[in-house]
Amino acid sequence: MTGPPLWRQAYDAAERRVTPHADRLVRTPSFAVGTAVLRRAQALARSSAEGVTARAWHLLNLPAGSDVSRLRNQIGALDREVRRLTVQLELERRRSARSPADHHPDVEEPHAEPAGPADGAGPRPPRRGAQRPAGA
Hints:
Layout: H1 6-26, H2 29-59, H3 65-97
């Protein structure tokens, strides 16, 4: 059998020559500072672009991504509140169906979810919807 392909030999030769120099470069303090400055510049550019696009969408009377995110959080909070109220209602129905002798106000139902603030946690991840058939 012959050795590795020609392209692999060329790659290995270039890697052997470049790697020591690149390794020394990335370990310098100036490289770390340059990387941090570049990341901050990217974040600033991204935030500026998001602000401009949000204003443009609002000028067209359309929701921006931040509006959609806020609405999703509110819908998640409402969903949690409805679930909490549904559990409370079911517990009250069960308690009212029992005879007064069976009712112990100090004992909670073992399967009941604890009531919590509706806006305490973040939204749940979206659920998978029904799959559309191919070509639809």
